[in-house]
Specification:
2 copies of one chain form a homodimer. The first copy, chain A, is of the alpha/beta class and 213 residues long. In chain A, 40% of the residues lie in helices and 18% in strands. Chain A contains 8 helices and 11 strands. Chain A has helices spanning 15-33, 41-48, 52-60, 74-84, 100-107, 144-151, 162-174, 201-209; strands at residues 38-39, 66-67, 71-73, 91-96, 116-123, 132-133, 136-137, 139-140, 155-158, 179-182, 195-198. In chain A, the strands form 3 sheets. In chain A, strands 8-5-4-9-10-11 form a 6-stranded parallel beta sheet, sandwiched between helices. In chain A, strands 1-3-2 form a 3-stranded antiparallel beta sheet. At the A-B interface, helix 1, helix 5, strand 11 and helix 8 of A face helix 1, helix 5, strand 11 and helix 8 of B.
Chain lengths: 213, 213
C-alpha cells in the first residue's frame, strides 16, 4: 500500500505528505468556487482537521507559497498544487467492470475539473458487453490490452469481483498501466513501478468501529 | 481526517496503526477462505506491501499473537483482530442517498461477514422515495432523525451531492450517529466525538499521479 511507505526514494517527499496534498487541493477548489481569494493555514486546518503547523510544514517542502501575516493566495496555491500533483492536465482513465460500482463510476460527474476523465469501459460478461453505461458503450475485455496500448492510457480503475481482480490487474500491467485504483476488496500484486490505491468501504468502517464504545 | 491524527489520546494506539489493522484482517480472512491455518509476518508483508517488521510491531501493541519460528495461527489472530476492531458483532448502517453510488452500495455484497449490514436507505428526492433498491425501499429523508434514533444506529454512509452533505451530516449527528463514511467530495464539520472517513476516488488518483512521469 502506498500509504505505508515512509519515504518515496525517487522524490524525497514522505508519501504521507503527498497523501495530504489532494485534500489541500480539494479544499482550495471549494474556496475558489465560493469566490474567495486568500486563505490561511488556520482556515485550512479548520476545514480539514489537520493542524495548521502541519499544513505549513507540508507546503514548505515544495516552496514558499505563503507570506506571514497575509496567508496564501488561493489561485496561486491551486496552480502550484495542480502542478505538483500533475493534474494541470487531464488524465485518461480506463475503467474495468461495468457492474453496479463500475456503472456508478462511469456516470460520476466528480472527475471534471479535477484532472481525470474516464474514456473507456470494459467488462467480460457477454450480457453486459455492448450496453450503454453513462456516455460509454461497454467493450469486451478480450481487447483490453491492445486498446490501452493504442490509447497509451496510464491509469485504470478496477471494479471487478475480487476473484478476477489479480488476473485483470496482470493484463493492465502488461498493457502499460502505472496506476490502479482498485475497488475489489483484495490486495493486488504488481511490479514496483505500478502504484495501487484501494477503495474498500469496509476498511474505512472498521477503522472507525475501533473507536466506538 | 482521522488518518492524520498521530495519536488517539483515549486509546494510546497511533491511528496510523489502527488504519493498518483492517488490512491485516482482510488478508487473514482471504487466507482462512483458502483453508490456511498458519501464516507469518513475512507472508503478510508480501501480500500487503507493508514491511514484516512493521506488521510484527503493530500487532505486538495489542498482545503476543505469534510465536517465533511458528508464526501466527490465522483463526486466533482473526478472532483477536475482530475483537480489537469491534467487528465480532454486526453493526447496522444507515445509508443516505439512493443515486448511482448509494444504489451500488445498497446492492453491494461485500459487507457480509465483515461486521456490517445496511438496514435503511434514505433520499430526499420525491422521484426516488418509495423505489426499491436492492433489498430496500427508499425512505423519505424527512423521517431520518427519528428512524435512526429509534433503531439506535451509530454508523452512516453518506452518498449525497456535495452541496447537501453538511446539512445531512448535521442531521445524522443530531440523531446520534458517531461514525460517517462520506462519499461526497467535501470535508464535513462534525463534533470531536464523531468519526469521519472519506471515499473520494479523485483524492486517491491524485495521490498516484504525483508519482507518474
Amino acid at each position: 500500500m502506498d500509504e505505508n511507505k515512509v519515504l518515496n526514494p525517487g522524490h524525497g517527499i514522505p508519501d504521507i505528505v503527498v497523501g495530504r496534498l489532494p485534500h489541500y487541493l480539494r479544499a482550495l477548489q471549494h474556496m475558489a468556487l465560493e469566490g474567495r481569494r486568500l486563505t490561511s493555514s488556520q482556515e485550512l486546518s479548520e476545514r480539514l482537521g489537520i493542524s495548521a503547523a502541519q499544513i505549513r510544514k507540508d507546503l514548505s517542502l515544495f516552496g514558499e507559497f505563503g507570506k506571514q501575516g497575509t496567508g496564501y493566495q488561493i489561485d496561486f496555491l491551486l496552480d502550484q498544487l495542480r502542478q505538483i500533483l500533475k493534474v494541470n492536465q487531464v488524465w485518461d482513465i480506463v475503467l474495468v467492470g461495468a457492474g453496479d460500482i463500475g456503472s456508478a463510476i462511469a456516470r460520476y460527474q466528480g472527475f471534471e475539473n479535477r484532472g481525470f476523465r474516464v474514456t473507456m469501459i470494459f467488462d467480460s460478461n457477454p450480457a453486459i458487453i455492448g450496453n450503454q453505461v453513462g456516455a460509454f458503450i461497454v467493450q469486451d475485455s478480450a481487447g483490453i490490452v491492445a486498446s490501452i496500448q493504442s490509447a497509451q492510457i496510464r491509469i485504470a480503475m478496477l471494479a471487478v469481483p475480487a476473484a478476477n481482480a489479480q488476473e485483470v490487474s496482470d493484463q493492465l500491467v502488461e498493457a502499460g498501466i502505472k496506476a490502479i485504483l482498485n475497488y475489489a476488496p483484495i490486495s493486488l500484486n504488481v511490479p514496483e513501478d505500478v502504484h495501487v490505491q484501494y477503495i474498500d468501504p469496509v476498511i474505512h468502517l472498521q477503522r472507525m468501529t475501533y473507536y466506538l464504545d
